[in-house]
């Protein structure tokens, strides 16, 4: 990560990568314009959408074909006892000028679902 990124935190999941992906989706689904585990791209109308959803993690992007408001990344690494993950934005929270509520909702939603699924967080920040 470079100096222009905003680290949200890291986590340890006792679940497989595939199960953890479902946990991640459940944590971000409420913020997606179309809550579906389907990767899409920017449209003419601004939206919050999944731009990556595979065994390496997920990426949520907010914006349209002209502007990207923010991008939120969760990278997964398999371990012998499940997987670990790192979550971060492409810019500092203060630099997000559009759809800040969705950005906060992504980190808060993941925090809540992590608690329900026995996923341990380290240094997790909501905003």
In spatial order, strands of the major sheet run 2-3-4-5-1-6
What is the number of beta strands?
6
Instruction: Please report the number of helical segments.
Output: 2
Query: What is the molecular shape?
Result: globular
Cα-based radius of gyration, to the nearest Å = 14 Å
Q: In terms of topology, how is this protein built?
A:
Blueprint: E1 6-13, H1 17-28, E2 47-54, E3 57-63, E4 68-79, E5 82-89, H2 100-116, E6 120-122
Antiparallel strand pairs: 1-5, 1-6, 2-3, 3-4, 4-5
Helix pairs in contact: 1-2
Written description of the protein model:
- Helices cover about 25% and strands about 35% of the residues.
- It contains 2 helices and 6 strands; from the N terminus they run E-H-E-E-E-E-H-E.
- Helix 1 (about 15-30) crosses helix 2.
- It has about 130 residues and is an alpha+beta fold.
- The longest helix is centred in the C-terminal third of the chain and has 17 residues, at about 100-115.
- The two termini are about 20 Å apart.
- It has helices at about 15-30, 100-115, and strands at about 5-15, 45-55, 55-65, 70-80, 80-90, 120.
Feature tags:
127 residues, alpha+beta, six-stranded antiparallel sheet, globular
Entry summary:
This protein has helices spanning 17-28, 100-116, and strands spanning 6-13, 47-54, 57-63, 68-79, 82-89, 120-122. The chain is an alpha+beta fold.
């Amino acid at each position: 990560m470079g100096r222009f990124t905003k680290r949200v935190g890291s986590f340890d999941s006792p679940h497989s990568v595939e199960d953890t992906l479902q946990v991640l989706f459940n944590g971000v689904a409420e913020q997606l314009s179309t809550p579906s585990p389907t990767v899409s791209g920017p449209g003419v109308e601004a939206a919050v959408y999944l731009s990556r959803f595979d065994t390496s993690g997920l990426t949520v992007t907010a914006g349209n074909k002209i502007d990207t408001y923010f991008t939120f990344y969760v990278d997964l690494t398999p371990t012998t006892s499940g997987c670990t993950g790192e979550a971060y934005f492409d810019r500092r929270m203060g630099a997000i000028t559009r759809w800040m509520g969705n950005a906060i909702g992504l980190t808060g939603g993941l925090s809540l679902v992590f608690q329900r699924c026995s996923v341990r967080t380290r240094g997790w920040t909501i905003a």
